[in-house]
């Protein structure tokens, strides 16, 4: 059998091509004997391919930092992925959903890093600003089903993100109401407390977990803390808005044809 390390470029290529073609693939981890560490190497190679096409790394995202999300996808470990400039959607902007496989959207909180955090930096010294955010996720696996190493290799389903207006960090970040609205109707409700008990912990976990893979957070990077509620499927002609108490809103509108692949 071929060693896992020799298969990393091929596995990364398969996931990358699935995203580019918006065409789902079968899960890869079990057949390739991929564990979480190997999966982070596939993710690194997958994002390296995007950077080679001219994309720029602009931050990281945390995933499965809330019970609601863990329960929705059946994986119960905190994970992290990489964000590139090509994934950025302007606040109030439009997304063509037929460029995705089976996109979903979820309400998040984003942090802006003031400096590259060293071991002695805590949240307050490293984070300059906070903003309401939306994340568009799109698993490259059929039926949006995956194991822990599968979703890590797939860059934690990262597909797009919207950042609302940056705010200075409020004194209490740990229990702000979060709403996800579609066409003016509330479809999910939660609290920032759902994010690891306090979304500031998402920063600590990002430093620790990315550090394990030799990745250091950089000044000016964005960090998505993870969704506070379950994600909802995107359909054509939707106006989606995240509302976070004290922080404001982030929104997007969808165009394109119905996707059901
Ligand atoms: C995995 C990504 C999870 C979050 O905010 O919890 C995530 C998925 O749900 O496909 O981004
Ligand atoms: Mg997310």
Q: How does this model look, in words?
A:
With 261 residues, the chain is an alpha+beta fold. 26% of the residues lie in helices and 30% in strands. It has seven helices and 13 strands. The chain has helices spanning 4-21, 29-32, 36-52, 67-73, 123-126, 148-153, 200-212; strands at 57-63, 79-84, 88-89, 93-96, 104-113, 127-137, 158-163, 177-182, 185-191, 222-224, 232-233, 239-244, 248-255. Strands 1, 2, 3, 5, 6, 7, 10 and 11 form an eight-stranded mixed beta sheet that branches. A five-stranded mixed beta sheet has the order 4-13-12-8-9, with no helix packed on it. Helix 1 packs across helix 3. It is globular and about 55 Å long. It starts with a helix and ends in a 6-residue tail after the last strand. 46% of the residues are buried. The mean pLDDT is 96. Bound molecules: 2-oxoadipic acid and magnesium ion. The site of magnesium ion (MG) has 9 residues, from strand 1, strand 5 and strand 6.
